[in-house]
Amino acid sequence: MQPPVPIAPPQLTAVGATYLWIQLNANSINGDGPIIGREVEYRTVSGTMYDLQPVDKASHKIGHLAPDTEYEISVLLTRPLDGGTGAPGPPLRARTKCAEPMHGPRELKVVDIKARQVTLRWEPFGYNVTRCHNYSLTVEYSARGTGKEETQEEVTYDGKNSAPQHTIHNLTPFTNLSVKLVLRNREGVKESTEIHVQTDEDVPGEVPLDSIQASVYEEKIILKWREPAHTYGVITQYEISYKAVSSFDPVLDLSNQSGKVIKLGNETSHVFLGLYPGSTYSFTLRASTAKGYGPPAITQATTKISAPSMPTYDQETSLNQTDSTVTVLLKPAQSRGAPVRSVSANIQRL
């Protein structure tokens, strides 16, 4: 007398995240009957979990299983008297479904802040949270109050070989961000708590060249401008370097016509005094934040030409005098922005 052994493996009839329904499929056997007892033996394919359950029906639900886990299931049959229980029949291999993640990533925080990147860290988690071996982790962030669409970025994290950390790059300096982590598997989605962070300041952008306006006079220039389109922080000051580069008067000495002016961050104009008429000045304007100066904006402006000035004459003695002529010494006129082309003398009879 041979103990009974099923010829075929059990049949899978339903699958869940924590259960498997099977048909014993044990009507055809090798060995001898009659069958007085049936048991289902199951174990994890990878791991050490094992259990043996008696059954009294043709179908059976194996419960309390782990999600997304492969099991090997066999049926054992028992006959009375000699021989008893036979060997396990052919095994059925079946995998449970994934379950919805237990919860979203926890303890999300910012560990490093720079002008154009922030580094996040969170509490490590593994299969006991994901409840599925295939899952994705994304960081979702948006600039607060701008109305721009949310940006999604895949995070490389497997819970075993990588640190629970991610750096978001290519951000805009001095911007308020809303950030969260999203854990997804095929059965559901769980999010972390949303956190808020502000990126660090950076050097500002260029002062808009089309915003620079110069009102020119004979000996002064009034310069006005707007703050950079991209301040990337709080503008603390402006630096304006100026230098005379040319004059309509080629003999004019421009070597002392240069300097530098510092303006407060809330000032957007300056009056340059003591300039030479008819001279072209170059202005280099830079804005600064706490991180330093941004790129320069360069413009030029030319003062107006002024009429030449004549020196004063007191009681001058003539050099030579006849009945019909008088010779006097003319003092040179002072050019004011252009060469003196002519000098005229007015003679008045007293």
TrEMBL record:
Pfam families of this UniProt entry? fn3 (PF00041), Fn3_PTPRU (PF23144)
SMART domains membership? FN3
According to its UniProt record, where is this protein mainly located? membrane
A Gene Ontology cellular component where this protein is annotated is: membrane
Q: What is this protein called?
A: Fibronectin type-III domain-containing protein
Tell me the membrane topology, using the record's own terms.
Answer: Single-pass type I membrane protein
Record-linked InterPro entries: FN3_dom, Fn3_PTPRU, FN3_sf, Ig-like_fold, R-tyr_protein_phosphatases
Can you say where in the cell this protein is located?
Answer: Membrane
